[in-house]
From TrEMBL:
GO terms for molecular function: hydrolase activity. This is Alpha/beta hydrolase. SUPFAM superfamilies: alpha/beta-Hydrolases. It comes from Photobacterium swingsii. Keywords: Hydrolase.
Length: 290
């Protein structure tokens, strides 16, 4: 893998791609989850690079990408805008999009808004944009505002968390995700920086602030119903139960199939071979010329 970047209107997005690529291969964009980074897909690159031109993005405020402006708190739909700016720079009519968790939610929303740009979607442990009942609107707004205030107060009185070694950072991440060190090492390596004798997380702390609003179920259903391309949902056997076969979102998409693999929410790390096999088999049935 090698480093590359996309210059957007407001900031630069870092990305990983393959060292050598074939211009005849279709492009596959890979979108990571919340507080992960492009290295989330490092275990998939060796097997997928023979089939696609791969680009794994770092979202703003993650990995090596620039942070959003000081008065921006990472609104969900801004990620869709970021993705569209990337697609416009790829000089191609259509792309495959693979998303994990947050990346899956962005991918499905983008495919709904710009169906002409997406050949096929692979959604790993994620389906539709998050939604909730309208009666939660006031409480959601209150929680979001208060979370911003807590962030401001915390950032004023407390320095960034310092870790004495890379191994400490890796251990902390392993405890959070309950995964082996070998699986998380690439993500942590890309997710920390060394400054004056210590290691610090690269991601923007504002990512932890709550959303000010969420759309209603009717909005999510209308969005998912607008997806025109084939969709593959990949879920972990021990991932989020609500994403599996009885999830209402599966009935909102015209052409969707679901594949279960071993693992939990980060099943693409735990079962990379099964995930890659599923992706290749799925895309092989899509007519690129359509």
């Amino acid at each position: 893998m090698k480093e590359t970047a996309f210059q957007l209107a407001e900031r630069q997005l870092a990305a990983l791609t393959v060292a050598k690529t074939d211009a005849e291969k279709p492009i596959m964009l890979m979108l990571h989850g919340w507080q992960d980074n492009a290295a989330s897909f490092s275990h998939l690159f060796p097997q997928l690079q023979d089939h696609y031109r791969l680009y794994a993005l770092d979202w703003p405020g993650h990995g090596y990408s620039e942070r959003r402006d000081a008065d921006n708190y990472y609104h969900f739909f801004d990620y869709v805008d970021d993705l569209h700016q990337v697609v416009l720079q790829l000089n191609t009519n259509k792309v495959y999009v693979v998303g994990h968790s947050l990346g899956a939610l962005v991918a499905s929303t983008y495919a709904a808004a710009f169906p002409e740009n997406v050949l096929g979607l692979v959604l790993i442990e994620g389906l539709s944009p998050l939604y909730e009942a309208p009666e939660n609107t006031a409480q959601r707004l209150r929680q979001g505002i208060l979370s911003r205030q807590r962030y401001r107060q915390r950032s004023q009185r407390k320095p960034r968390r310092k870790m004495v070694s890379f191994e400490q950072a890796l251990m902390l991440r392993c405890q959070v995700n309950q995964l082996d060190e070998a699986l998380l090492r690439p993500i942590v390596k890309r997710g920390v920086e060394y400054i004056e004798g210590g290691y610090y997380w690269r991601h923007d702390e504002r990512l932890r602030c709550d959303s000010l609003y969420r759309i209603a179920q009717e909005h999510a259903q209308a969005t998912m119903s607008a997806i025109a391309c084939p969709v593959l949902s990949i879920v972990g056997e021990h991932g989020f139960p609500r994403l599996q076969q009885r999830a209402p979102e599966l009935g909102w998409v015209k052409n969707i199939q679901q594949q279960r693999v071993e693992g939990g929410h980060h099943c693409h790390l735990e079962s990379p071979q099964a995930v890659c096999d599923s992706i290749v088999a799925f895309t092989s049935k899509i007519d690129i010329q359509s």
